[in-house]
Amino acid sequence: TKYRKCLAFDFGASSGRLIAGVYDGEKVILEEIYRFKNEPVTINNHLHWNLELLYKHIVSGLEVASKNMVEFNSIGIDTWGVDYCLLNKEGQPIHWPFHYRDTRTEGISSKLPIQFEEFYSKTGIQFLPFNTVYQLYAEFKNSPELNRQAEHLLFMPDLFNYFLTGNKKTEYTIASTSQLLNVEGKQWDCDIIKRLGFPKRLFQEIIFPGEIYGMLDKKHMRKIGMSNSVPVISVGSHDTASAVAGIPIENEDSAYLICGSWSLLGLEIQNPIVNEKSLKESFSNEGGVLNSIRFLKNINGMFLLQQLKKHYNEMFTRELDFADIINAAKLSNKNFSINPNHALFLSPDNVMEAVDAYCISTNQGKPDNLGEWAIAIYNGLTQEFNNQLLNLESITGKKIKHIHMVGGGIQDELLCQMTANVTNKKVIAGPVESSVLGNIMIQLYALGEVSTQSEIRQIIKKSVSLKVYEPQT
Length: 473
Ligand code: LRH
Fold this sequence. Notes:
Helix content is 38%, strand content 20%. The protein is an alpha/beta fold. Residues 7-245 form the Carbohydrate kinase FGGY N-terminal domain. Residues 255-447 form the Carbohydrate kinase FGGY C-terminal domain. Its EC number is 2.7.1.-.
């Protein structure tokens, strides 16, 4: 058999990695090449992504890859959703891309000339205050000159693909997170764009997962010491799209729960669901790979536990890790709980204070130790998983049999077991690296190695090991 080696860059909100997938005709073996932290920077009171450093990590990752491997066949990049960069006529970034947790979008949604109901009927996307449409509206309102200066808009993965190939295109799955893409037509909604006063020229040609974004350019080949170029493939460039593509979904009644900074709970479907119920519960129809739709809900996620670890260690000058937090939560005999999607928890300065404020305002009293803050978060997350699972069942009319949990967060066994208990459903956990696997599978698709979704899922099944959590009372 001929081997294929695909390089997947997967950028999350807190860390990034470059992983190689080696395909032998049967299964994919993952080999980690490079890992780095993704730490936002505050500039003039605004939260931004460290673009220069992220780009350096891409180059360093490719250098390590080209040193370690004889050769590789392709590259694919996926990142978190909604964030973008504006470029000028010369194709240069004209700002540091904003972090979706930056507060400039606060209160902006009510200022738009289009009501959410209309947005939803056209785009099928749930309301999140940081959707690209609100970020862009806020940015042009604060800096009107940018409306004239900006020539192109690229989402984060598009931007990295552009750096590597020189081509400016927008990948479909990431574009769907903007709330500017027509859910039926899978193209920019020009009517919305016009009515918001956004220049039409900003929006690039849409390219779908499995197409080629471009070839790695000479400048980068030279930099990393390669003699033959390779294609940079348009994968499901939204990390959540790649994550869904990388799940060994058993059947159409299997829900998935992707556990990263966010928890994304949903179903893979073929046609969008846009109706009164889905609007009321604000479920998204994000674009998926190979003509699928990701019908899902964003729920806050590991971000809360990461913040708890950070803020607790800062406040009490400790060096606790996740295992300490999990143990403390297990030992806590109080039953505090939060609503993780409450606005208090989007960008808290201090998550313990936010949990306190929430618990006090809901007459639960005041948590006052690590275990109590932690259990409030675990209860809150898993109860919200259950609420949204019930919504998912009632909107789709499906009875969910079990839940596939994937992503870094499944290394937390307490989260997996509590999810099984609270939802009273079997949890099938794995793989941890589902976005990387999904990214690689679409590269193999573009290279002509696989041709259907079911073939892809069979390869994934052979490639991963899973862990089952049965509900316990
Ligand atoms: C998860 C994710 C999610 C988006 C959020 C901004 O990483 O991509 O799907 O809503 O980040």
